[in-house]
Design goal:
8-stranded antiparallel sheet, Umud Fragment, subunit A, 4-stranded antiparallel sheet, 13% helix, alpha+beta, 203 residues
Length: 203
């Protein structure tokens, strides 16, 4: 007859199981993020807390980032979270504009996709200044062609976003997931909760 488990052992096993489940969910299912900057305004505000689905683009092995189970691929217009190419300790969130093989060009803030004007339904421009491309790429850029297994991303706040126009493409394997929903929103300047934003599905 086996001895009954001690209370301490039961607690330890329960804690370990909870840690394993939490790690599995965070790695393969969903992860929470807080928006720290205004580069995605007005879609995402500073202080929004969002959930990002990890499985939309396939189940990936941690660290090596190779796809274990392919499920789907990023599509143009998705809001994606990815490892920032210039500092891998940071995650960035932007909108997917260009897919592999697409030619991207920006002329006086207008996006051209494969040589044709692209309906920029989410882009917001807050600065009337038009910067020449030989000064910086914010308002005049390209054309460039998105390489295989990469994407081109921009913030919705087009004039206030540091994105693919400045530092290049995002490797597909570095895409962590797709933004799903705002589950909490805190306005730090006014010290109040933005109730109307809670539950907003992100598109």
């Amino acid at each position: 007859m086996s001895k009954p488990k001690s209370k301490l052992r039961e607690y330890i096993e329960a804690i370990l199981l909870a840690i394993v489940i939490a790690f599995f969910i965070r790695t393969f299912v969903v992860q929470a993020y807080k928006i720290p900057s205004g580069s995605m305004k007005p879609t995402l505000q500073i202080g929004d807390h969002i959930l990002v689905t990890k499985f939309n683009y396939g189940v990936k092995l941690p660290l090596i980032r190779s796809t274990l189970i392919p499920i789907g691929k990023p599509t143009r217009g998705d809001i994606v979270v990815f490892i920032y190419p210039e500092d891998r300790s940071k995650d960035f969130i932007k909108r997917l504009i260009g897919l592999p093989g697409d030619t991207i060009e920006i002329r006086d803030k207008k996006i051209l996709l494969n040589g044709l004007p692209w309906s920029d339904a989410h882009g917001v421009y807050v600065d009337n200044l038009m910067i020449p491309g030989n000064v910086q790429p914010r308002d005049n850029f390209g054309p460039v062609t998105v390489p295989p297994d990469s994407i081109f991303v921009m913030g919705d706040n087009r004039d206030e976003s540091y994105d693919s126009r400045f530092w290049g493409f995002v490797p597909m394997k570095e895409v962590l997931g797709k933004a799903l929903i705002i589950y909490w929103s805190w306005n730090q300047e006014e010290s109040n909760v933005r109730l109307r934003r809670i539950g907003t599905i992100l598109h």
